Amino acid sequence: MKPITYIALGAALATSALAADTTTELSVFNAGETTIPLTAIAASIVNVQNDLTTLALDCKGGEPTAECELNDPVTITAGPSTFTLSAIYATKIQGINVKYTLVQDCDITGSTQKAVCTVSARAEASSDGVKTATSTSAVTTWSSEDIYYEPLAITAGVEKLNPTGSVGQTTTSAAGGAAPTSTDDAAARQTGLGGAAAVAIAAAVMGAL
To answer: Where is composition skewed (Low complexity) in this entry (predicted)?
Structure first.
């Protein structure tokens, strides 16, 4: 089973002058081992209020693929020190239909110093008319060596950004230009489901099957 891409957004966009041929990217907070690249994800800005940014993440093209199995958009509301995510993910494991409901809350300290993430997951399985469900939760504390940032392209809603900027790590590059920079740790990893969410999902799945 591939973990789905659930992204802990630890920062909003800073000031950038946008032109028609530019691509705006968020530097996205993540922690722990992950598997799925962000290139399969499309992100749109839903709302910006003070230092909080709300994003909707979906598969590029709007349809699930082998790299992105989202059936419904993931909603994220985040700022420099907080993150809330809600998502629904459906898949099939050995012929059994499984639906996950995930809620993740992270308190982030100093951008890269520490993050405490609480994840609640519910798994519902059905096969041959028989249904079962189970829930679980997990709390994980990530230290600085576990935390890294990856660029995420914004495909819609850029006009909602505050022109004065906000706290965060941001890169803006011309379309087709050089890849944006990231932390040394991030360069060696792929981005996807953070470890705390992966643990909770795995526990819920094992309980439901």
So the answer is: 170-185
Q: What are phi and psi of 20, to 5 degrees?
A: -65, -30
Rounded Cα distance between 91 and 125, Å, is 10
State the pTM of this model.
0.59
Q: How many CB atoms lie within 10 A of CB 42?
A: 20
- Which of 86, 97, 166 is closest to 120 using CA atoms? 86
In the chain, where the domains are located = 24-160
Tell me the DSSP string of 125-151: EEETTEEEEEEEEEEEEEEGGGEEEEE
CA quadruple 105, 109, 112, 116: dihedral positive or negative? negative
Question: Please, what is the average pLDDT of the chain?
Answer: 65
